[in-house]
Design brief:
disordered N terminus, 9 helices, two-stranded antiparallel sheet, elongated
Length: 186
Amino acid sequence: MNDGSKKSRRRRSSSLLYQEPQESMEQLNDQAAIPNLNANWVNAKGAWAIHIVLIIALKILFSIIPGIERDTSWTLTNLTYMFGSYLMFHWVRGIPFEFNAGAFDNLNMWEQMDNGDQFTPTKKFLLTVPICLFLASTHYTRYDLTYFTINTLALLGVIVPKLPVSHRLRVSFLSGHPDDRYLDER
């Protein structure tokens, strides 16, 4: 009784990691046609300074809350910055603008920056900021093991996705395999 009305079930891979495939020639042409406003701002004047300003503002915010000690305020500053950085640069894919025919839909912002080139001055700066914040927060928490462990895990969560070995590498249990999302939309 195969009348064709049953939907075939797609076999799913059990792998937690998958590599995002390279763009087709058509996608590469779309990417080159119009400047990527989503990722080009990181090379603009003042874009680097905003990270320092945000860290200082977070530190002031957590320091003025009554009952929060210096150790905790530094760790909260570190965690908040690292979470925001991960969310902005590594979690969200695509761009919020609809002018490029979806050319960057499968790339996160880190992969879009500087046309995907590794170790550009901007990427070096954005790799250095979390490390310096980690060192400062570790120093000001007086090398307490609990705070050190929390800060180290936060640092690893932000640094590992920035490394070249993680370029286009996805963790499927966090965001799902893109083929599954495409099938859900249909």
